[in-house]
């Protein structure tokens, strides 16, 4: 208690820069993992961060990707994450001159944490892959579910066209880089679909590409063999055993 009082007194000194209140606002616990949830555990905070993982976005872009969030809540989350130093706000140069939000260097460092959380949670039999999936989420899932052993020795430059969102994924030396791209010229192959979730049955379900095309609208352009070799290097971790109902009685 003495330490806490002394700390508060130091923060209250006139002219001293103070950090926004965060640690201890939910949990009276010094655990760093608890602090992480205090930083980004509010509803929609991680979704906002996820949508910024592949670069800066305008308010309207984030809102369009997350239709379940209200403009008021999005404004609050962006302000809080900026206050905490997770993201920054800047203005694009003319002629665009629009305001965008992007993760800070520290904010980008959360991706490995989010990847591990994704690999952990997708093992649950309760995970439902048929729910809506944003384009950024689909691309980040590739960085999360890449199988290094299968990717070894494979090099590819693959485009993804989901209408308003386009990306180029470059695989080399067992690592996958993904970036937004307006121009998809020069890729080895291109996946085109009306929605990002269309790639899931092929990439993770390992279903026949023609069957996937018929049910999701996913089409492959360019080098089909290169596209299918690329899709084959991604896999989900095994599911845990379902809970035993009898043990719950």
Structure description:
The protein is 39% helix and 16% strand. It has twelve helices and eight strands. The model is unreliable at 1-18 (pLDDT under 50). The chain has 249 residues and is α+β, with helices and mostly antiparallel strands. It has two domains: 24-109, Arc Repressor Mutant, subunit A (Orthogonal Bundle), CATH 1.10.10.10; 129-231, Nonspecific Lipid-transfer Protein, Chain A, CATH 3.30.1050.10. The relative contact order is 0.09. The strands form two sheets. A five-stranded mixed β-sheet has the order 6-5-4-7-8, covered by helices on one side.
In short:
With 249 residues, the protein is α+β, with helices and mostly antiparallel strands. Helix content is 39%, strand content 16%.
Quick tags:
single chain; 249 residues; alpha+beta; Arc Repressor Mutant, subunit A; Nonspecific Lipid-transfer Protein, Chain A; 2 domains; 5-stranded mixed β-sheet; 3-stranded antiparallel β-sheet; globular; disordered N terminus
Q: Could you report the average pLDDT, rounded to the nearest whole number?
A: 89
Look up the CATH topology of the largest domain: Nonspecific Lipid-transfer Protein, Chain A
| Helix and strand element order | HHHEHHEEHHHHEEEEHHEH
**Count of helical segments?**
12
Large-scale geometry: globular
Number of strands: 8
Kindly give the count of domains: 2
Described by strand count, sense and barrel closure, the largest sheet is: 5 strands, mixed
For the record, give the distance between the C-alpha atoms at the N and C termini, rounded to a whole number.
Answer: 44 Å
Strand-residue fraction? 15-25%
Q: Looking across the biggest beta sheet, what order are the strands in?
A: 6-5-4-7-8
Which radius of gyration do the C-alpha atoms yield?
Answer: 21 Å
**Poorly predicted spans:** 1-18
Q: What's the name of the CATH homologous superfamily of the largest domain?
A: SCP2 sterol-binding domain
Under the CATH scheme, the architecture of the largest domain is 2-Layer Sandwich
Structural class: alpha+beta
Helix content: 25-40%
Provide the CATH top-level class of the largest domain.
Alpha Beta
